[in-house]
Each structure stands twice: as structure tokens, then as C-alpha cells.
């Protein structure tokens, strides 16, 4: 555990030395012992410890709670050391988000397991944040539009609307609206005439949200002059996700191809008719 650095903040020199020796016996590194809050803050920025053991009551202008507020900016876990008589201070300390409390006098085993639990919790939270950050980056950089919704039903449990809960950047680009103007809004607020122009949209999405059965369909939105392929799925009843792909170019190409085929057939039929008429005249 020599690679784990612990900053000790304790104004009682004898107790501080005892804590330092105990930590080192566990294999931890103690790069500094601070007796005052100002020194603790300076050393925290300098050393960047993995954990801080902080006495709530300190000599000087700053107490442990005030010091913790500053060190918290570095995302370093803190364990408070406190005496039974400091109950009021403990309540105030709760607002700094400490990773634990050790009530004096505490045993070496309590200290050891308190530190291990705090470090484990801190590492797990950092991994979770990193994972969320990676997910959010992937989410926002998807080429297709993504949105997450909650379905709204009437008294007979029939889908009548849905609310936008989350969208990515691609979705903003697709419908040319900003996230702040979409999140929390109903589809009927964003597109007031949606039930007239695309009455099946809410029905299709509602079926997915209520049954959990995925669906893929194509739809033209007059409001955006676009064709979209919409994939819908649900992992929780009452909620559903949609993936929008702009297929307007593909549909235009398909229509152009169909039009070309119609013209070709018309030309071919006219040629055949002319040929047959020519044969009849010869005969």
C-alpha cells in the first residue's frame, strides 16, 4: 500500500505522530502531517494525497470543516476524526460529503477498515464518473439522433402524448431545435399539429413503451420536410428510446428510380404500340 498517500491533519502533535506510525505500519505513505488548516490546504494541493484524515477541531483560523470544503475541490476523499462532544460539528461536517467518521478514541483496526472503505468507495465513484463521461461522449457523438421519452396515457391507458427527457446533439441538428427548448416538453408542444400530420407516431411509440416490443418504421414529417427511419425500444415500462435516421436522400433517390422506371415502361410501351401499328399497316 506504499503507493497510497494519506495526508494527516491533526493539531495534537502526540496523537498525530501516533496516527502517522499506525498508517505506516499498515503500509500507507504519510507525506505530511498538518496541524493547521492553512497548511493542510497548501499541502493537499502540493502532494495530491489519495485520502485525508482530518480532525474536525483545529487550531488557527480554519476548522476541519472549512478546510474540507476547499480540499473537496480536488476530489480527494476525507475521513473526519471527531470526539463524542462534537455532535453539532459533525452535523455541519455532513454537508462537505465526507467518506467517513472515526469517533475518538478509535482502534487501529477501525482506522484501517475505515480507510480501506473510503478508498474503495472513492475509486468506485471515479470509475463510475469515467464510465459516465465515456458514455456521454459516445451518446453525444452518435451520428444518428437519439432521444429518451416518457409516454403519457389517458384514463383508459391509451397513449396520448410523450415527454422528451434526454436527447443528443445529432437529434438537435435533425429537428433544428436546441436541447433547452426540447427537454421536458411534450411532442404536442413542440409540434402542435402532430396528431393531424402524424397521428400514428404517438400510437406506435406508446405501444413500445407499454409492451416493451421494439418497432422500426419510416415516417415523413411535413414540419421538417424530412423522411426519418425511427427505431423505438423500451427497457422500462412507460419509457422508450428513439433513434432517428434522416433517410430523405434515400427516399428521394428511390422515388427518382421509380419515376425513371415508370418513364422507361411508358417509352417501351409506346415503342411496342408503334411497332404493332407499323406491322398492321404493312399487312
UniProtKB/TrEMBL annotation:
Keywords for this protein: Phosphoprotein
GO BP annotations, alphabetical order: phosphorelay signal transduction system
Transmembrane stretches, start-end: none
Domain Response regulatory: 5-119
Residues the record lists as 4-aspartylphosphate modifications: 55
InterPro entries: CheY-like_superfamily, PAS, PAS-like_dom_sf, Sig_transdc_resp-reg_receiver, ST_Response_Regulator
Keyword Metal-binding: no
Entry protein name: Response regulatory domain-containing protein
Organism: Methanobacterium subterraneum
Amino acid at each position: 500500500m506504499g503507493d497510497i498517500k494519506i495526508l494527516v491533519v491533526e493539531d495534537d502533535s502526540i496523537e498525530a505522530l501516533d496516527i502517522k506510525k499506525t498508517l505506516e505500519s499498515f503500509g500507507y505513505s504519510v507525506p505530511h502531517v498538518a496541524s493547521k488548516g492553512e497548511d493542510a490546504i497548501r499541502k493537499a494541493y502540493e502532494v495530491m494525497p489519495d485520502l485525508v484524515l482530518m480532525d474536525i477541531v483545529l487550531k488557527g483560523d480554519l476548522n476541519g470543516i472549512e478546510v474540507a470544503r476547499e480540499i473537496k475541490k480536488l476530489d480527494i476523499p476525507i475521513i473526519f476524526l471527531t470526539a463524542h462532544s462534537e455532535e453539532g460539528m459533525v452535523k455541519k461536517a455532513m454537508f462537505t460529503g465526507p467518506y467517513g467518521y472515526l469517533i475518538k478514541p478509535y482502534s487501529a483496526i477501525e482506522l484501517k477498515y475505515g480507510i480501506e472503505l473510503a478508498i474503495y468507495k472513492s475509486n468506485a465513484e471515479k470509475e463510475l464518473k469515467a464510465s459516465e463521461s465515456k458514455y456521454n461522449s459516445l451518446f453525444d457523438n452518435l451520428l444518428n439522433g437519439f432521444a429518451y421519452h416518457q409516454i403519457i396515457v389517458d384514463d383508459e391507458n391509451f397513449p396520448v402524448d410523450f415527454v422528451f427527457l434526454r436527447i443528443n446533439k445529432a437529434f438537435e441538428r435533425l429537428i433544428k431545435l436546441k436541447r433547452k427548448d426540447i427537454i421536458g416538453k411534450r411532442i404536442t408542444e413542440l409540434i402542435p399539429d402532430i396528431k393531424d400530420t402524424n397521428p400514428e407516431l404517438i400510437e406506435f411509440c406508446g405501444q413500445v413503451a407499454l409492451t416493451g416490443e421494439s418497432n422500426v418504421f419510416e415516417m415523413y414529417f411535413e414540419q421538417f420536410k424530412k423522411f426519418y427511419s425511427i427505431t423505438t425500444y423500451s427497457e422500462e415500462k412507460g419509457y422508450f428510446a428513439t433513434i432517428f435516421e434522416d433517410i430523405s436522400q434515400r427516399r428521394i433517390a428511390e422515388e427518382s428510380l421509380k419515376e425513371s422506371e415508370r418513364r422507361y415502361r411508358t417509352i417501351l410501351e409506346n415503342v411496342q404500340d408503334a411497332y404493332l401499328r407499323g406491322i398492321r399497316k404493312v399487312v
